[in-house]
Amino acid sequence: MRTGMRTGLSGxxxxxxxxxxxxxxxxxxxVTGLSEQHSGTSPEVLGYALLVAGGLALAARRRAPVPVxxxxxxxxxxxxxxxxxxxxxxYLFAVYAAVRAGHxxxxxxxxxxxxxxxxxxxxxxxxxxxGEAFAQARGxxxxxxxxxxxxxxxxxRQAERRADEAERTREETARRRADEERLHIARxxxxxxxxxxxxxxxxxxxxxxxxxxxxxxxxxxxLAIREAGREASRELRATLEALRDDGTAPPRGLDHVPELxxxxxxxxxxxxxxxxxxxxxxxxxVDRTVYRIVQESLTNIARHADAATxxxxxxxxxxxxxxxVDDDGRATPGTAPxxxxxxxxxxxxxxxxxxxxxxxxxxxxxxxxxAELPVDRTS
Length: 379
What we know:
By secondary structure, the protein is of the alpha+beta class. The chain is 63% helix and 10% strand. It contains 10 helices and 5 strands. The chain has helices spanning 14-34, 42-56, 65-81, 89-100, 104-124, 130-213, 220-243, 257-266, 284-305, 341-352; strands at residues 270-276, 309-316, 320-327, 356-361, 367-374. It has a 5-stranded mixed sheet, with helices on one face. Helix 3 packs parallel to helix 5 and helix 8 (257-266) packs parallel to helix 9 (284-305). It is elongated, with a radius of gyration of 38 Å. The chain starts with 13 loop residues before the first helix and ends in a 5-residue tail after the last strand.
């Protein structure tokens, strides 16, 4: 499948590249003709016109290769008859274009006619005898083969470039399929683990409840198992929710950020939410990313920060959306945070959207996570 517009010489669009080549060929032919001595009579003026016309006709060689073959051939015969001993460069370009387009039979027939017509044209000019006329015609075509070889090399280079692009496309498709398969396996694995850990958590809860009901001391190991089960269950649930964020489940976004803050409050954290700026629509990817940043930040605060308060600030700007989560935990300036999976995931999401992320201890103590995501409101 073609993913973009084809390009020609030096990366130019085909139309522009064709005109560049046509102009260069016309200039070369005209300069070659001007280098010869002529008296400026009408036949010679016509010869100059045919030199330029033959070169410029190449601009249409992709769209109409057979007519261009006929025009360049007629121009070559015409300026030879007018007394211009100039190689049939434009005609050789037209031969290459016609063969490449699949018109091999027509090209062979036209070339046979050219081999017969060029000596006649040279004789008609009155500047050569029969032997010189045949030699001149042969030389006009032989010199032009050098140009044809260069054009063929350029065509080969373009073909190799397209083959490389096709190979890269196949590799990208293979990587995408591999990623989809890994995601499927991860979902299945986490579904299974979530069930098993839920069983462990439930059994430990029952055991603790039964021990307390009997008035017996609860073993520390059993309490540790219960807490570990709760923590593992929360982590797996969050991971599975992120893995399933593929468009099949209802998306979570900015509208659900207040729920995250309320959940943090219910867990004992004094969390606040501030929304600034005039609210406007944002791309779905930005919407989901802000939710994930707030979710991961509040989760990390609850697990690791030993914080009493946290603030979430969402700022709607004209061309960007900014989010900031601060806490008053035990992080101190000068201590580099350990980049866990959650922080790396946030950074990858923000970078993929062309945004910036900063996660570091605050100068007054605690930790801050700040992200700025560009918003293209013209799309």
